[in-house]
Design brief:
single chain; 150 residues; alpha+beta; M1 Pyruvate Kinase, Domain 3; 3-stranded antiparallel β-sheet; 11 strands; 15% helix; 36% strand; globular
Length: 150
């Protein structure tokens, strides 16, 4: 079963990623208190599994906070999920696209940025469609696709 493993809040642009146990997502706005609040990319998401693949490829270990994403989830794949909706606790997030790695990844670990360029290695960004409180340990599922009749 997929779940929310970690939450990070970036209080200032280029600032540190502060780990928190719970947060508020506001519909149409993003992660409350985050530097990107009210921006186009409400939240950024990475997965435990893809992060582990990247580190194995680079033969190293490094904290997933290095990626500078807001949410770390386990048990699902984000690759090619643009337009899908993720249910996180009582919230709904619509995947807007792939999060492309920036130069800060290379500063953190040589080779990391290039490794992330493949198979959505940088994770995904999403818009908050339905807000509410989230907490580490919350279940995460894909909203079922609605078949079009006609």
């Amino acid at each position: 079963m997929a779940r929310l493993e970690r939450i990070w809040l970036k209080r200032a642009h280029r600032g540190p990623m502060d780990p928190i146990n719970s947060a508020i997502l506001d519909a149409g706005r993003g992660l409350r208190g985050n530097a990107n609040y009210d921006g186009r990319r409400h939240v950024t998401i990475i997965t435990v599994e893809r992060w582990a693949e990247l580190l194995e490829e680079l033969s190293t270990t490094i904290d997933p906070a290095t990626r500078r994403a807001n949410l770390l989830v386990s048990g699902l794949d984000l690759e090619n999920t643009r337009g899908r909706s993720l249910v996180l606790g009582g919230c709904v997030l619509r995947i807007g696209g792939e999060t492309r790695p920036c130069e800060r990844m290379e500063q953190s670990l040589p080779g990391l940025r290039a490794a992330m360029e493949v198979r959505w290695g940088g994770g995904a960004w999403a818009e908050v469609v339905k807000g509410g409180e989230i907490a580490v340990g919350d279940h995460v599922t894909w909203e079922p696709a609605i078949a079009l009749l006609g």
